[in-house]
Design a protein that fits this description.
about 190 residues; mainly alpha; about 85% helix
């Protein structure tokens, strides 16, 4: 490693430490995007269940790629170059995406033992763990998903998917607005 590379790595480290901290919690636009996408997909489960799996099969990876691009773009714009954090995000959502794909495979197979609730369980775990390890606001959305999963399994309310999508969508909107307010407080005027 040359001296210039070493200096660049040190400056990236300092820049990341200064610009990110315990209050940093993600890109508000992504909270809004995923709140909308989840609400639409969960509503499909009640009103057009035959389309739900295919919706998430297309929207999940496309939204994931857009999220990756926007995260990288935002990091460059803000001068943050934290490759280790980027790798943690990538690995987390790659594992989550694989779990969703496996849930989809079990759903379309002849065995269908777990049912569509399995998607909500996977989502709740994915978002909760992202909240623990990556962005704190995702923890609360994930815990809501897990609570809704429990409600769906135990009491099976009518339009459970639509209600769950609404709860999760609102929680992600709330988290997005909270993050946007936090970003505005962090930036000097």
């Amino acid at each position: 490693m040359t001296d210039l590379d070493n200096i660049r790595d040190n400056l990236d480290y300092v820049s990341s430490a200064v610009r990110s901290g315990p209050s940093r919690g993600g890109i508000p636009a992504l909270y809004f995007l995923w709140g909308l996408l989840i609400f639409i997909g969960f509503t499909l489960a009640d009103f057009a269940p035959q389309l739900t799996g295919f919706y998430f099969l297309i929207v999940g990876p496309a939204g994931g790629l857009f999220s990756w691009w926007l995260g990288a773009h935002t990091g460059r714009r803000e001068g943050v170059n934290d490759a280790a954090l980027g790798q943690r995000y990538g690995l987390h959502w790659l594992v989550s995406g694989t779990a969703f794909l496996l849930a989809f495979i079990s759903l379309i197979s002849a065995r269908e033992a777990a049912g569509p609730e399995l998607f909500l369980l996977v989502a709740g775990l994915s978002y909760s763990l992202a909240g623990v390890h990556l962005e704190r606001p995702l923890l609360y959305s994930g815990l809501l998903m897990l609570a809704c999963y429990g409600g769906m399994v135990l009491i099976s309310p009518p339009y459970a998917w639509t209600l769950t999508g609404l709860v999760v969508g609102i929680s992600l909107l709330w988290a997005g607005f909270a993050q946007r307010a936090e970003h505005h407080r962090e930036r000097p005027q």
